[in-house]
Amino acid sequence: MLAVRYDAFRAPLRLLELPDPAPEPHGVVVRVMATGVCRSDWHGWMGHDPDIRLPHVPGHELAGVVEAAGPGVTRWRPGDRVTVPFVCGCGTCRECRTGNHQVCEAQFQPGFTHWGSFARYVSIHHADVNLVRLPDALDFTTAASLGCRYATSFRAVADQGRAGPGEWVAVHGCGGVGLSAVQIAAALGAQVVAVDIADDKLAFARSLGAAVTVNARAVPSVVDAVVEATGGGAHLSLDALGHPSTCFDSVACLRRRGRHVQIGLMLDEHATPRIPMAKVIAHELELRGSHGMQAHRYGEMLAMIASGRLAPARLVGRTITLAQSVEALTSMDRFEGVGVTVVIEP
């Protein structure tokens, strides 16, 4: 199969012919029809993820068609159109038994714990637990964009953040994750404040439903700007970027008994950010992480897409070939472009 591989962290990625994978007894092989380019893959290439073993094929946001299934698979057969969460469960551990596959004790992550979807084929373990059937009306490019950023944002806003109608939701960072969160929060009836340093991303956030936008470079204090815009602070605030400054601002801009959800990865030198803990205690703030979304929770999100309440296709910024993914992935730290980049020629 044709695939992108790196043999050392921060080393050049190469387009190679590699052996086709075979399905595990409990798994399937998916022919990749589309796969997203995500900053988490950039973190992996940089060496920030301890689960990666070299050499490695990145890619974790995928949609495609089941090519082959192992003998233990009962729910899937070749030809089925599928996607998969970027965090997959084993189905048998304590967390999986309570429905929390996103924090499985033995989780499988294509593109991190195992080879990923920057390839013609990818092997997916525990298929009966982890695969999600795609509606016929949902194209592969849009489906691939759901896998990490959109699904993670959906769970962060709807489940972890519990956004409700009329509440103020602040979104710090308007990349793929943040823009997804803006659209989802607005669809749930919240009033959204979008924060970024790029006017084009803020304009896009307004088109997706943000009621207020704040350019962090144009105000003396992001926290003060959000508190003023929301009449006392956000009910829910999300750090969709993953940086010490956005994390601090997200917590500090909350009103009393507000809720902060951390979506953006905090790795390497950013792993231990400063938190206004005195305010967390005095105002009884709630701090939560959000780590993907279980396959069994996709139904509500897909129903909202089918009804038109959510439109993830609007977040696809550009489509590229597998060869072009090499440059796209290694330049993710420059935060160029608006929306999600999807590889559509694996």
UniProtKB/TrEMBL annotation:
TM regions (residue ranges): none
Gene3D superfamilies in alphabetical order: Medium-chain alcohol dehydrogenases, catalytic domain
Pfam families given in the database record: ADH_N (PF08240), ADH_zinc_N (PF00107)
SMART domains noted in UniProt: PKS_ER
Signal peptide range: none
Cofactor: Zn(2+)
UniProt keyword annotations, A-Z: Metal-binding, Oxidoreductase, Zinc
Domain named Enoyl reductase (ER): residues: 8-343
PANTHER family: ALCOHOL DEHYDROGENASE-RELATED, L-THREONINE 3-DEHYDROGENASE
Record family assignment: Belongs to the zinc-containing alcohol dehydrogenase family.
Protein name: Alcohol dehydrogenase
Organism, as annotated: Anaeromyxobacter oryzae
